User: Which sequence fits this backbone?
């Protein structure tokens, strides 16, 4: 294994744990070469994956963009199902693998294509925006997609006073507060981010003097108390620029582990909320996925064409 990967991992875990993982890490490296594969990993994966085997680490859209640019014929997505679908939409001719059959998403599963059609029937004058945390079938029914990083920009680009944004109600509130638009939603929420409360923010700031960064999927009371609200990519940029001494990151807790690899001088408070779906991806699963070339992600052609159009409209802004 490359020396820089080892160095990064030694900062993130005990030497004994790393030694146990090294044979698997070596086998994955060999399989990547044999399969001409690259591994993309979400910010919420553990350092063993992000620093140990990944060729790229970022949010869901950044992962898909990287996969589309690279020449590798095989892409292993260390994330959840909708992320692997997004990669497949932008890389239709590549083999896209998801290492865990259990890597779903409570937010993506809160809404389906039929729900979008019903929302359109009830609000025929409203354009519909889908957060990327949705299935390809949902993306195929909407006008445009957005990420947590560009949701405000996408909403403003539509030139309307009223729109529908699905499925996350807290992201919809975030956009409404920053645009003055009326933003309808489907009532969905991320099971990880809704566990945080405003009292969490108050307690950590009072007792630890921490700078508080929150994801837009957190409830409004959390966002209002935070020092900064933004996507995982925006959080990382804020920390790299401002370099606060002590930080509370209100998002999936592996985000702090991964930022700490790059900025070990920052002390992270850890009210740790794990995403069980993300954590179903393991080194053993990645190894098995490369060995068997499974679980392969496919999107029906008629769905993929319409879903890709919604994503491409977003990318064109």
Assistant:
């Amino acid at each position: 294994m490359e020396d820089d990967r080892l160095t990064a991992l030694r900062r993130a875990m005990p030497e004994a744990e790393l030694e146990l993982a090294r044979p698997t890490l070596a086998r994955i490296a060999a399989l990547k070469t044999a399969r001409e594969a690259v591994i993309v990993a979400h910010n919420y994966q553990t350092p063993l994956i992000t620093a140990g085997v990944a060729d790229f680490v970022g949010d869901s859209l950044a992962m898909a963009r990287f996969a589309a640019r690279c020449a590798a014929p095989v892409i292993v997505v260390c994330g959840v199902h909708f992320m692997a679908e997004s990669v497949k939409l932008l890389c239709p001719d590549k083999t896209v693998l998801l290492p865990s059959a259990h890597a779903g998403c409570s937010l993506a599963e809160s809404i389906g294509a039929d729900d979008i059609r019903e929302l359109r029937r009830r609000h025929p004058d409203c354009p519909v925006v889908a957060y990327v945390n949705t299935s390809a079938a949902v993306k195929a029914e909407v006008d445009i997609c957005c990420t947590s990083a560009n949701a405000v920009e996408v909403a403003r680009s539509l030139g309307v006073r009223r729109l529908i944004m699905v499925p996350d109600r807290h992201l919809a509130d975030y956009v409404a507060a920053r645009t003055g638009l009326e933003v309808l939603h489907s009532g969905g929420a991320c099971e990880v981010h809704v566990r945080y409360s405003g009292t969490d923010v108050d307690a950590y700031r009072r007792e630890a003097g921490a700078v508080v960064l929150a994801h837009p999927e957190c409830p409004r009371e959390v966002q209002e108390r935070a020092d900064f609200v933004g996507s995982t990519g925006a959080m990382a940029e804020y920390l790299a620029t401002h370099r606060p001494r002590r930080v509370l990151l209100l998002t999936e807790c592996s985000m702090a582990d991964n930022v700490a690899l790059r900025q070990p001088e920052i002390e992270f408070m850890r009210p740790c909320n794990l995403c069980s779906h993300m954590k179903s991806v393991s080194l053993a699963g990645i190894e098995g996925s490369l060995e068997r070339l499974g679980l392969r992600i496919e999107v029906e052609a008629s769905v993929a064409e319409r879903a890709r159009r919604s994503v491409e409209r977003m990318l064109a802004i």
Remarks:
- Residues 151 and 197 are 23 Å apart (CA to CA).
- The longest helix spans residues 15-35.
